[in-house]
Design brief:
Radius of gyration: 24 Å
Number of strands: 0
Strand content: under 5%
Number of domains: 1
Length: about 55
């Protein structure tokens, strides 16, 4: 029955690994989204500055 225990453990370990990968991917996407939002904000600010100067 030792072998059965080990198989169960391995099978349980797989979804956990997948979950971690999904979480990391989500965080990466979130980070990228945040960065592009900040970039957009900066560009809009610069645009406003230009308009004020004109």
């Amino acid at each position: 029955s030792d072998q059965q225990q080990n198989q169960k453990k391995e099978m349980a370990g797989v979804p956990i690994q997948k979950l971690y990968e999904q979480v990391e991917m989500k965080q990466d996407k979130q980070k990228m989204r945040d960065e592009s939002l900040q970039k957009k904000k900066k560009e809009e600010e610069q645009q406003k500055q230009k308009e004020i100067q004109d």
